[in-house]
Amino acid sequence: MNILYGVPGEGLGHATRSKVVIGYLLDQGHNVCVVSSSRAYQMLAANFPGRVHEIRGFHLAYKHLTVSKSRTAALTLRTAPENLLINFRKYRELLCDFEPDVVISDFESFSFLFAKWKGLPVISIDNMQIISRAALDIAVPHQERGNLTLARQIVRAKLPGSQQYLISTFFPLPVIKERTTLVPPILRPEVLALRPTKGAHVLVYQSATTQKDLVAQLQQLPGQEFRVYGFNKEETHGNVQLRAFSEAGFLDDLASARAVVTNGGFSLISEAVYLHKPVCAVPIPAQFEQFLNAAEIEKLGYGRHFSTITPDNLKAFLYDLSGFEQALQTYNQQGNEVLFAALDKALAVI
User: Fold this and answer.
1) Strands 259-262 and 240-243, bridge-based pairing
2) Does Transferase count among this protein's keywords (predicted)?
3) Are residues 202 and 316 in the same domain?
């Protein structure tokens, strides 16, 4: 089967999990053509030479660690005319060089619009659709209700009318819309190969490096060892080690960590849960999907959800690690087999 696979370029979580699915599809004998942008394009092109086409995507604009809706809208509008022209040329390339039977999209618009133009079925594979297609079981505070409304509007506008929605999630929720299947998170082979141990350090991942006081906050817990990724530098500040990015080094530190402190990003939280690592989740403000992931971590007893990283919050989290570890023992996932079976079933009826 000829498959057009769309991967957004914002962040590498989409690319990392799409790489797993694309590899599986190729192993099953399918012919896959990929469209992506930015860093995701670079990563996927290196792994699937000759199969990946570069398009123009959009980028999130941050202001004081918060996603700026006005800045993102302005950036998108400013680049839209040029992006549309370049993407239209890519449409023509694909029309001449590749005739897909189906489109698979990981929350990516170009491939979806291509499918609508060509009258092709679409399979959605991502974690975001849970916001719209499942009944949330957490209390949404007043200050998050506007973010939830906006998130639902965005999710509903993405990939409407797809033939099947495969939603990856570490927390089960009641499905409220048809053609929707919940599957466990997509895990890369490198994570599946890890054998977790319990070391002395806490792994800290800080994606928004403008939080200038992070090191100072961590230094106020001198009895704890923190290994921090996100600043992309090698420095030691007492009990705080800043580490330059290395996939092998990061995975080693993840596998041997006693706990993980991160934002509300789905990929790392999912990997930590799979490895039974307690999670302290501090979501980036104004991103409801991150709020949801963090709230579910606390609801399930897998860790804590805080709005900021402070010494007191970290102390409260670390004090309860044994309880989080016990709750995590109930989580079980057999690799990516459930997803692959659901994907095979969806493709079989096209």
Assistant:
1) unpaired
2) yes
3) yes
Residues 6+ apart with CB under 8 A from 259: 202, 203, 277, 278, 279, 280, 303, 317, 318, 321, 324
Report how far residue 171's alpha carbon sits from residue 270's, in angstroms, rounded to the nearest whole number: 10
Identify any residues that bridge with 261 across adjacent strands, giving them in sequence order.
204, 280
- What pLDDT digit, counting tens, does each position of 32-74 carry? 999 999 889 999 999 999 999 888 754 333 344 444 444 433 4
Q: What is the pLDDT of residue 320?
A: 97
What is the C-alpha separation between 21 and 118, in angstroms, rounded?
23
| pLDDT means over runs of 10, the chain (350 residues) | 92 91 98 93 95 69 41 41 54 71 94 90 97 97 95 92 98 97 97 97 80 88 96 94 94 98 95 98 94 98 96 97 98 97 97
CA pair distance 164, 302, nearest whole angstrom:
30
Phi, psi of 21 (to 5 degrees): -70, -40
Q: Which two tokens stand for residue 246?
A: 């290395």
18 with 41: CB under 8 angstroms? no
Distance CA 173, CA 105 (A): 22
Asked if 268 and 288 count as a contact pair (C-beta separation under 8 A), the reply is: no
Q: Which domain holds residue 92?
A: 2-187+335-348
Are 211 and 181 found together in one domain? no
Q: Are 87 and 55 in contact (CB under 8 A)?
A: yes
CA gap 168, 184 in Å, rounded: 5
Whether residue 176 is found in the same domain as residue 231: no
**pTM over 0.85, yes/no:** yes
170's tokens: 């570490």
Q: Is there a single domain that holds both residue 206 and residue 256? A: yes
Q: 96: domain CATH number?
A: 3.40.50.2000
Mention every residue, 6+ apart, whose C-beta is less than 8 A from residue 272: 254, 260, 262, 278, 279
**pLDDT tens-place string over residues 76-126:** 334 444 554 555 566 666 655 789 999 999 999 889 988 998 899 999 999
Same domain, 204 and 154: no
- The percent of residues above 90 in pLDDT, for the chain, comes to 77
Same domain, 302 and 196: yes
